[in-house]
Design the sequence.
């Protein structure tokens, strides 16, 4: 008798909880790769979405780094426990693009009844995450580009009021700064994103054949035959002369810290660091940003986007995709873009978002002034085949090979040509291996 | 009379073994099997394709000069860290065994480092040895680049050997001290009465009696130095500058997890496994002969 009652009660309780669950919000996860202040900013974006409506709920746990976000998502995907959305950084794009693990952005939005004006995304940003026909596969999210940071106070001492426009000017300014007693005129590191990728794009130099890989998986690196070689020679000469100094976290301060502390007077890094410099520099220090310099006599093309995009993964339910579409629609709204750019140093990714920021007077405020230059740099020209982006397999390994080569070259262990040639050869082996792994797959 | 206790039925024994076998299977044979499969195929990270590659992955690994560099550096690291960790541990254990003043405090403190996780040790050493902010900053002011592991590969190697040995020193110390304390005092005292000094006694009595412990520690230290160095490297040098501290295990991590080349990393881990097995075999075959257990 007792047992009968108990069973009945349990069944009733189960029924009730089932009914309650039906009224609960649809929950999805976004795995992000940002941490610290930027990680909290993503969580705030998710919270704003949760507060804006009652139907869906998104949670955005960080995975510790960009790499781990991809690694963890792969492991989870293989175990069929993947999140609905994952944040994937620029270099992780191609592996995902060639897989059947994702739902293309356009398909997701169409199936869930959203009409998106895809041309509203800045072409320099969208092309990085689109197929060769320009159809977006993932949603641009945290986007940046590289800027040139310069210390106005130090420049005043040498009688300059403007940032250098060419590398020849950088050299002259650095020499003047050095004779004015500045120990570290310009901080550099081994970052291939600025030294190789941005440089090649804005100078219209290819990184690889087949339009930087957009034309097929059989592309080959060509950077040992471009202006990049002269540029690295130029940088090496500046290093030897003491005009440039290498600043790494391992030595005590990275380039951003070295610039913000006033130790180094120039550097180049992402616009995403604009906020960090503003927050960590002494209030009386005057500094500004400019577009990356070019070599004398070069016509500037658009720079490349950096950062990460949001991918929607396969194998989730209709409801979960509805939630994902609602979230992705939400973050592309101009108000969301204003919040995101205010909270972080990242740039808006849509034209309406940029317009909204301008109308709100965002770029007139002293602490944000200059960030629009990143967009000017991204839109400096029509997107050309070499400034569209980079679509190379194993790109994480290629970046590492180049980084190792730069560190050997700058340390004087190998000559510029030998170092770059060796890295190109090793990178091409990585590319051939990638091509074999995806044998029979076509780039769309 | 033989009075061994045996189970009458075999299945009870099997049942009692099952949890252990299950663990070994799940955490050793299964992953090893998967690695073996990937090593002979080309695995796509996001799934959806797996091309049979035969011996291609191994061919690629062995034809890669960077790989041989990593093998060479792993050897240097294994010898360096084993020599340092065992040598110092033995020295300290001998001192403690002689019960010099304050030995109890030393004894406790020398054991602690083993309880510190590798990442924590890595962070501590990165900070201590940072060229512009650490203890070497003052020396670098006098002589620039006197110590700069971010540029100088040799310095970086020293850094990871020291950081790694610091932890294993504690482990070895425990074993050496225990072994020393199990040597009958009567032996030491007798030879002392015969007029032999501490060094003589160490050379003629203690070290020979320590041989089995030394052999055990040698095998463990060499093996672990091949597979356990990851935490230290990842937190101090990231395998750099350039590839100066990219040991075999770190290369596997980078190629597999960061570079998403699952098959290349799988082939490398099979090679590493075989190498460690071979080294252990060599040690048992050639060094153990010289060890007397009684």
Sequence:
């Amino acid at each position: 008798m007792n047992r009968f009652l108990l069973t009945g009660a349990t069944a009733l309780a189960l029924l009730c909880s089932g009914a309650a669950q039906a009224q609960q919000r649809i929950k999805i996860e976004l795995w992000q790769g940002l941490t610290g202040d930027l990680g909290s900013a993503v969580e705030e974006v998710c919270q704003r979405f949760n507060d804006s409506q009652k139907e869906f709920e998104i949670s955005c746990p960080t995975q510790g780094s960009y790499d781990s976000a991809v690694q963890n998502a792969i492991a989870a995907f293989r175990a069929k426990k993947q999140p609905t959305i994952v944040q994937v950084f620029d270099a992780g794009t191609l592996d995902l693009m060639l897989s059947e693990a994702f739902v293309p952005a356009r398909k997701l939005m169409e199936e869930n009844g959203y009409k998106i004006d895809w041309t509203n995304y800045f072409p320099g940003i969208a092309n990085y995450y689109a197929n060769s026909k320009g159809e977006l596969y993932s949603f641009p999210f945290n986007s940046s580009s590289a800027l040139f940071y310069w210390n106005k106070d130090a420049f005043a001492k040498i009688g300059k009021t403007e940032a250098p426009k060419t590398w020849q000017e950088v050299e002259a300014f650095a020499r003047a700064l050095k004779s004015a007693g500045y120990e570290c005129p310009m901080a550099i590191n081994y970052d291939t994103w600025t030294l190789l990728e941005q440089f090649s794009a804005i100078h219209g130099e290819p990184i690889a054949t087949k339009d930087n890989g957009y034309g097929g998986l059989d592309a080959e690196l060509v950077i040992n035959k471009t202006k990049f070689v002269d540029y690295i020679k130029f940088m090496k000469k500046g290093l030897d002369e003491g005009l440039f100094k290498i600043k790494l976290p391992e030595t005590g301060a990275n380039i951003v810290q070295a610039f913000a502390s006033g130790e180094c007077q120039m550097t180049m890094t992402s616009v995403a660091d604009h906020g960090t410099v503003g927050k960590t520099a002494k209030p009386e220090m005057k500094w500004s940003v400019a577009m990356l310099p070019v070599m004398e006599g070069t016509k500037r093309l658009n720079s490349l986007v950096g950062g990460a995009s949001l991918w929607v993964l396969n194998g989730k339910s209709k409801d979960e995709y509805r939630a994902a579409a609602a979230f992705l629609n939400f973050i592309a709204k101009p108000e969301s873009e204003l919040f995101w750019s205010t909270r972080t140093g990242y740039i808006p990714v849509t034209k309406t978002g940029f317009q909204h920021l301008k109308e709100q007077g965002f770029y007139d405020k002293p602490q944000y002034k200059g960030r629009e230059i990143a967009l000017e740099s991204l839109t400096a020209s029509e997107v050309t085949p070499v400034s569209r982006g980079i679509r190379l397999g194993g790109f994480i390994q290629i970046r590492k090979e180049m980084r190792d080569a730069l560190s050997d070259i700058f340390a004087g262990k190998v000559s510029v040509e030998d170092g770059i040639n060796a890295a190109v050869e090793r990178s091409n082996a990585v590319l051939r291996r990638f091509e074999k792994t995806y044998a029979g797959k076509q780039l769309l | 009379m033989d009075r061994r206790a045996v189970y009458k039925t075999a299945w009870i024994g099997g049942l009692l073994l099952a949890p252990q076998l299950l663990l070994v299977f799940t955490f050793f044979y299964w992953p090893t099997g998967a690695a073996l499969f990937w090593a002979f195929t080309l695995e796509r990270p996001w799934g959806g394709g797996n091309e049979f590659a035969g011996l291609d992955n191994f061919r690629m690994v062995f034809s890669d000069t960077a790989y041989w560099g990593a093998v060479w550096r792993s050897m240097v690291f294994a010898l360096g860290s084993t020599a340092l960790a065992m040598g110092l541990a033995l020295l300290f254990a001998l001192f403690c065994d002689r019960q010099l003043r304050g030995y109890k405090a030393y004894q406790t403190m020398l054991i602690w480092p083993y309880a510190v996780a590798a990442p924590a040790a890595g962070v501590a050493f990165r900070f201590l040895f940072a060229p512009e902010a650490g203890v070497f900053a003052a020396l670098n002011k006098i002589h620039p680049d006197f110590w700069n592991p971010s540029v100088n590969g040799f310095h970086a190697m020293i850094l990871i050997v020291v950081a790694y040995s610091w932890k294993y020193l504690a482990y070895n110390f425990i074993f050496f001290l225990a072994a020393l304390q199990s040597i009958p005092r009567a032996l030491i005292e007798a030879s002392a009465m015969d007029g032999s000094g501490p060094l003589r006694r160490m050379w003629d009595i203690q070290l020979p009696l320590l041989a089995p412990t030394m052999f055990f520690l040698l095998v463990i230290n060499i093996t672990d130095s091949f597979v356990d160095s990851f935490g230290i490297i990842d937190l101090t040098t990231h395998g750099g500058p350039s590839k100066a501290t990219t040991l075999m295990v770190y290369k596997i991590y980078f190629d597999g997890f960061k570079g998403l080349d699952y098959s290349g990393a799988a082939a490398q881990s099979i090679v590493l496994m075989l190498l460690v097995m071979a080294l252990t075999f060599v040690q048992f075959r050639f060094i153990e002969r010289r060890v007397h257990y009684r």
Observations:
- Chain B has one domain: 59-290.
- Chain B touches chain A through 39 residues (CB under 8 Å).
- The beta strands of chain B are 41-43, 50-52.
